[in-house]
C-alpha cells in the first residue's frame, strides 16, 4: 500500500464518514503511522479482533465505543487497514489527552506520546488490548472515579421523593418512607435517628449544609436522575485526562466547584479547608501556577476594575469611606488598602504569579465559610485556614505565623521549593471514605461540555 494511497484513503474515508456519521479522526496520525512503516499494511485478523474487544470496553472509561467506528465487511482490504489504524489512534488519543477541548487554560500542556510508535509495537507484540488501557491517566483520583462510574452504571434508576414540605426528625408518612427507600434504608414511615444520619451523610457527599433535614436543596439533589449522575462522572473523568502525569510530590489542589483546597504530599492529603471563590460575574479562572512565597500582613493593591466600579463610587457618596477602610490614593490614582484586620486580603497571601492576578489569601469575612455555595469573591480565592496553610508551606509553626501577624509588619517568606497549585473544577470525585461525591455545576461547565458534545456530529 503506497503513501499516495494512504493519503487518498484518509481523505476519501473522512468525507465518507461525515455522511455516515463515522470518523477519520486521526488522519495526520494515520499518515505518520504508515509513513514510518514504509506504507505496508498493518493489521491481521488477530490484532483486529483484539482492537474490537478493546473498543467494546471503552464505556469502562466513560467513552463511547461508537466514536471509534470499525470497518464494515464491505470495505476493501486497504480501507479496512486504514480504518483500524484510525480507530486505534483516535481511541488512544482520547485516553491520553481527552476527547473534549480543555475549558480555559485548565492545566499545563496535555500528555503527549508517540502513538504511532506505540501502535507499531502493540501490533508486533500483539498487545493491543493491554496497551490501550495503560494510556488512561494513572492518578489515584482517576482510578477511584472510574470505579465510581462503573458502580453507578450497574445501579438501577432510583425513584424520586415527591415534592413537598421539608422532612425532619419525628416526621412520619409516605414521603418519609420514600426518602428512606431513596437512601437505601428499610421500609418505614418514621423519620428516626437512622434516617437523620443518612440524610446528613448524603448532604456531606453533595456539599450541602449538614443539618439532617431533607429540605428543598437536599430534595433537589436526591432527585437528580442516575443517568445525570453518570454523565457528571463522565465529564469529570474527562477532566482528569487533561491533567499532566506528574502533579508534583507536594502540590495544592483547589477545586472551585467544591469550594475547597487540599494540600497533597506524596499522594496523601495533609491539609484541607473550605474556600470562597469568584461569583458568577467574576468567576475564578482555571489555571496552574506555583506558590513562590507567603506574605504576612499584606497590603491590597486594588485592581482598577474594582477601584473604578466599586470603591470610588462609595467614596463619592461618603467622603470618609477611604479613611474608614484604610485605603490610600497612590500617585497615578491607584488605590491601596493598608495591612491590618480590615484588609480584604486578611493577614496571609500566597504569592503565586499568574496572568489572571488571582491569589489565595485570608479574609476578614469569616462568616461566608459557613454557607454551602461560597461564590462571593471577585475571582481570588479566600482560605478558611490561612495560618495553617502558611505554616504548612513555609515549614514554620502556626505559633510563629501568629507572632508575625501580631507584630503588624509586612513579612514575605520565600519558599525553599516552589509548590505547584492547580486551580481546577471537579463536580464529581471520590472522597476519603471511598464514596462518590457530587457538587453543583456553579459555573455551568458540565452543561457547556454536554451542549458541545450534543451539538457535534
Please supply descriptive tags for the structure shown above.
14 strands; globular; L,D-transpeptidase catalytic domain-like; Muramoyl-pentapeptide Carboxypeptidase, domain 1; alpha+beta; single chain; 3 domains
Brief rundown of the structure:
By secondary structure, this protein is of the alpha+beta class.
What does this protein structure show overall?
The chain is α+β, with helices and mostly antiparallel strands. It has three domains: 134 residues, no CATH class; 67 residues, Orthogonal Bundle (Muramoyl-pentapeptide Carboxypeptidase, domain 1), CATH 1.10.101; 205 residues, L,D-transpeptidase catalytic domain-like. Helices cover 41% and strands 16% of the residues. The chain contains 16 helices and 14 strands. The strands form three sheets. An eight-stranded mixed barrel has the order 1-2-3-11-9-8-4-12. Helix 1 runs antiparallel to helix 2, helix 2 crosses helix 4 and helix 7 runs antiparallel to helix 11. It is globular, with a radius of gyration of 27 Å. The relative contact order is 0.11. About 2% of the residues have low confidence.
Amino acid at each position: 500500500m503506497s503513501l499516495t494511497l494512504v493519503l487518498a484513503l484518509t481523505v476519501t474515508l473522512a468525507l465518507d464518514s461525515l455522511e455516515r456519521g463515522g470518523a477519520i479522526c486521526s488522519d495526520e496520525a494515520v499518515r505518520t503511522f504508515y509513513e514510518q512503516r514504509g506504507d505496508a499494511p498493518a493489521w491481521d485478523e488477530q490484532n483486529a479482533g483484539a482492537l474490537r474487544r478493546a473498543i467494546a470496553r471503552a464505556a469502562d472509561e466513560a467513552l463511547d465505543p461508537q466514536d471509534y467506528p470499525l470497518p464494515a465487511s464491505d470495505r476493501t482490504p486497504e480501507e479496512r487497514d486504514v480504518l483500524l489504524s484510525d480507530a486505534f489512534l483516535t481511541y488512544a488519543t482520547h485516553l491520553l489527552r481527552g476527547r473534549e477541548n480543555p475549558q480555559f487554560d485548565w492545566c499545563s500542556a496535555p500528555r503527549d506520546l508517540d502513538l504511532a510508535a506505540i501502535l507499531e509495537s502493540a501490533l508486533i507484540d500483539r498487545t493491543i488490548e493491554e496497551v490501550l488501557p495503560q494510556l488512561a491517566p494513572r492518578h489515584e483520583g482517576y482510578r477511584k472515579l472510574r470505579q465510581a462510574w462503573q458502580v453507578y452504571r450497574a445501579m438501577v434508576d432510583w425513584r424520586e421523593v415527591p415534592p413537598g414540605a421539608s422532612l425532619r426528625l419525628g416526621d412520619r408518612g409516605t414521603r418519609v418512607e420514600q426518602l428512606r427507600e431513596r437512601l437505601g434504608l428499610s421500609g418505614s414511615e418514621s423519620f428516626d435517628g437512622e434516617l437523620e444520619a443518612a440524610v446528613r451523610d448524603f448532604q456531606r457527599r453533595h456539599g450541602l449544609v449538614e443539618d439532617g433535614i431533607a429540605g428543598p436543596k437536599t430534595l433537589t439533589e436526591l432527585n437528580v436522575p442516575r443517568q445525570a449522575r453518570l454523565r457528571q462522572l463522565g465529564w469529570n473523568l474527562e477532566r482528569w485526562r487533561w491533567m499532566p502525569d506528574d502533579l508534583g510530590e507536594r502540590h495544592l489542589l483547589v477545586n472551585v466547584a467544591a469550594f475547597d483546597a487540599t494540600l497533597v504530599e506524596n499522594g496523601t492529603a495533609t491539609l484541607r479547608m473550605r474556600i470562597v471563590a469568584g461569583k458568577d460575574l467574576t468567576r475564578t479562572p482555571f489555571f496552574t501556577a506555583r506558590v513562590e512565597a507567603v506574605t504576612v500582613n499584606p497590603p491590597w493593591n486594588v485592581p482598577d476594575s474594582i477601584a473604578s466600579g466599586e470603591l470610588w463610587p462609595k467614596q463619592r457618596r461618603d467622603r470618609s469611606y477611604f479613611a474608614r477602610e484604610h485605603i490610600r490614593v497612590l500617585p497615578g490614582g491607584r488605590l491601596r488598602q493598608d495591612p491590618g484586620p480590615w484588609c480584604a486580603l486578611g493577614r496571609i497571601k500566597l504569592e503565586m504569579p499568574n496572568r489572571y492576578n488571582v491569589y489565595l489569601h485570608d479574609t476578614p469575612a469569616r462568616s461566608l465559610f459557613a454557607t454551602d455555595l461560597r461564590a462571593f469573591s471577585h475571582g481570588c480565592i479566600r482560605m478558611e485556614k490561612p495560618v495553617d496553610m502558611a505554616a504548612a508551606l513555609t515549614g514554620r509553626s502556626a505559633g510563629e505565623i501568629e507572632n508575625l501577624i501580631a507584630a503588624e509588619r509586612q513579612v514575605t517568606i520565600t519558599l525553599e521549593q516552589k509548590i505547584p497549585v492547580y486551580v481546577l473544577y471537579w463536580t464529581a470525585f471520590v472522597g476519603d471514605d471511598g464514596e462518590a461525591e457530587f457538587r453543583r455545576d456553579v459555573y455551568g461547565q458540565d452543561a457547556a461540555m454536554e451542549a458541545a458534545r450534543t451539538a457535534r456530529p
